[in-house]
TrEMBL record:
The keyword tRNA-binding does not apply. Keywords: Transferase. It comes from Enterococcus aquimarinus. One of its GO terms (molecular function) is transferase activity. One of its GO terms (biological process) is aromatic amino acid family biosynthetic process. It comes from the Bacteria. Residues 12-260 form the DAHP synthetase I/KDSA domain. Coiled coil: none annotated. This is Phospho-2-dehydro-3-deoxyheptonate aldolase.
Length: 263
């Protein structure tokens, strides 16, 4: 269901009027975590000012440590929806647990499946029945073949389209948080009809590497990107070191737009 052999033409994913995979470059921007109404409203304002169409933000967070902030949960979903609606943005947010599928679907336009759940097959099957587009992150050590099979689980019910998200994979390299695998973009384009976007934030883990890798994502032919921004990255509750402040985000968007026009 996900392969080009089955479906030769590109699938354009329509997110309530925002089209992904139609040759445009769609930006999803927002904080790693929803921290409160002021923070998510300010993030939404920034996202919109830079030209993003979709607000990202986690309300259920897959944290490495159980002692770290785990997310505002349903309250986070509500205030993110409110902030997105105020600025005319769509919402992407992560679903971690089948138990929350209804509440996450209620408040979001795209449901994100995180890297740590790429092979949570029951979760993939469940989210695939919602009819909402599914942003499927590549697993931390996921091969392309495993990722395609994961997408097949999502597509199995023939209800939800898939948006692949390349977010870097674990290698022996320590200068970056993950090794951003840009070759995944043309490979997925060749093998699947569904769109692929890049996540240069988790792909690098370092804010000043995000803009060059966002530019590279455009050049590689990605259908868009998802990027972490924050009104005050130094005090972010999660992923501050890879988050862009307003000035750096607006600058990145300027550079990305120049390349998008040239493609
Ligand atoms: C995130 O988007 O904040 C996130 C947790 O991403 P990943 O699943 O790629 O680590
Ligand atoms: Mn994050």
């Amino acid at each position: 269901l996900t392969s080009r052999e089955f479906h030769p033409d590109d699938t354009i994913v329509d997110v309530d009027g925002v089209k992904i995979g139609d040759g445009s470059f769609v930006t999803m921007a927002g904080p790693c975590s929803v921290e409160g109404l002021d923070q998510i409203r300010e993030s939404a304002r920034m996202a919109k000012a830079g030209g993003a169409k979709i607000l990202r933000g986690g309300a259920f967070k897959p944290r490495t440590s159980p002692y770290a902030f785990q997310g505002l949960e349903e309250e986070g979903l509500k205030i993110m929806r409110q902030a997105a609606d105020e600025f005319g943005l769509k919402v992407i947010t992560e679903l971690m647990d089948e138990a929350h599928v209804d509440v996450v679907a209620e408040y979001s336009d795209i449901i994100q499946i995180g890297a740590r759940n790429m092979q949570n097959f029951k979760l993939l099957a469940t989210v695939g029945k919602t009819g909402k587009p599914v942003g499927l992150k590549r697993g931390i050590s996921g091969t392309i073949d495993e990722w395609l099979n994961a997408a097949e689980y999502v597509a199995f019910a023939e209800k939800s389209p898939v948006i692949f998200i390349e977010r870097g994979i674990r290698t022996y390299e320590t200068a970056t948080r993950n090794t951003f695998d840009l070759s995944a973009v043309p490979i997925i384009k060749k093998l699947s009809h569904f769109p692929i976007i890049v996540d240069p934030s988790h792909g690098t883990g370092v804010w000043d590497l995000v803009t060059p890798m966002a530019r590279a994502g455009v050049a590689a032919g990605a259908d868009g990107m998802i990027v972490e921004i924050h009104p005050d990255p130094a005090n972010a509750w999660s992923d501050g070191p890879q988050s862009l402040n307003e000035k750096n985000y607006l600058n990145m968007m300027k550079e990305v737009n120049v390349l998008v026009k040239a493609m």
